[in-house]
Specification:
The chain is α/β, with parallel strands linked by helices and 188 residues long. 37% of the residues lie in helices and 18% in strands. It is built from five helices and seven strands.
Length: 188
């Protein structure tokens, strides 16, 4: 009897594991796969955004939380949205051991409220950038909000700044929301 229960439990756990792997594979195929930025890139992204202590930082697709944790170390209120639950769990574990106060949500960032952000960072894939631009344009972002994308630019926007340095695999694009919020693109 005990052996049968143990057998069922192991079957269920294995099934859950396979389903989780399939789910993550599905997410990686149809959104953006988890490819983390290096610590150096994370530092440069936040420096390029001129992130200051006390500001609200939001990361779209926060992966294992490395950018969130760095932003929190710089004194920001850092929030991440991530679709893959193992990465959300890993982020929470890292934050616990590093004693960093961050918020990370298992949630599609297209459904998130971004209106409080001072700085928004992301490292996604080229095919989603147009859709992300539409999301940002409809997000009532504050004037002065800086939007930072590593490696990939928004198709129809003109960046305010572009950082290309030795040791970076791709450029960092920085955009700024101006007084006219419908024109994120042209605010140099
Ligand atoms: C290229 S990785 C970058 C991870 C992290 N930002 C970093 O730089 O280390 C992109 C991440 O975005 C997540 N992602 C993609 N689309 C998403 C969506 N709509 N909502 C939430 N997370 C998403 C993926 O699961 C993946 O972990």
């Amino acid at each position: 009897m005990l052996l049968a229960i143990l057998g069922y439990t192991i079957d269920i756990l294995l099934m859950l594991m396979v389903l989780s792997i399939l789910y993550c594979f599905f997410i990686a195929t149809f959104t953006a796969p988890f490819v983390p930025v290096s610590k150096k890139v994370a530092r440069k992204m936040l420096a390029a955004a001129d992130l200051r202590s006390g500001e609200n930082h939001i990361e779209l697709g926060s992966g294992d939380g490395r950018v969130l944790l760095l932003a929190a170390r710089m004194g920001a209120n850092s929030t991440g949205y991530e679709l893959q639950w193992p990465l959300v769990l890993l982020t929470k574990i890292k934050a616990f051991f590093l004693r960093r106060k961050i918020h990370v949500h298992l949630k599609n960032f297209f459904k998130a409220d971004l209106s409080a952000a001072d700085v928004i960072t992301m490292y996604l894939i080229p095919s989603t950038m147009g859709k992300v631009a539409k999301k940002l344009e409809s997000s009532s972002l504050k004037s002065g909000t800086r939007i930072v994308s590593y490696a990939f630019k928004f198709p129809d926007w003109q960046e305010a700044k572009k950082v290309e340095r030795e040791g970076l695999a791709g450029p960092i694009f920085i955009y700024k929301v101006g007084e006219n919020k419908s024109q994120i693109s042209n605010n140099k």
